[in-house]
Amino acid sequence: MSKIEQLISEIEMYLDSCKVQGFSGGKRIIVEKDVIDEMLAELRMQTPEEIRKYQKIISNKDAILADAQSKADSIIDNATKQTEQIVSEHEIMIQAHQQANAMINEAQAHAQQILDQAVTDANAIRGGAVSYTDNELAMLQNLIDNALSDTESRYNSFMHQLREHKEVITSNRAQLNQTEYGQPDTSGYEINNVLNEE
Known about the structure:
The protein is mostly helical. The chain has two domains: 1-46, no CATH class; 49-164. It contains six helices and two strands.
């Protein structure tokens, strides 16, 4: 069990142990704010380091792309300077132009590769972080759904038992009232059996 799951279980056990608020029909409980705040703070602190790392990289995506662009510009600038140096020599002007065009094309292709790789890496990191976070949230949602379902089931069972007890009490009172007003007491045995069964 992960630390996050353990903390969620502790929160569930704490909520189950809280007193039910009067006249709320069991739908509201009384919690100590300091206790629940401390549990939630601990849950936040346990956010996996991987998520924080991915979030930091995603937030720096523009910086990554800007750095790639800077490197590409530097490569093109160096290629241009080398081209100008070659072209300055009249005897090899034609060859210089050819070499210059080849170097510029190569520099542009290399710069584009850097940009494409930077975008691909940033998107892959973002996708991994989003997927991991979604899986963690889905697990948390499932735990909460199970807790709600279990609580509702126990509440419904409790209400059903109360209704059954009320029906028995109402029946016993009716039989007692018939006896009090002179009706033959032929149901005493049945009343005692019902009380004994309870």
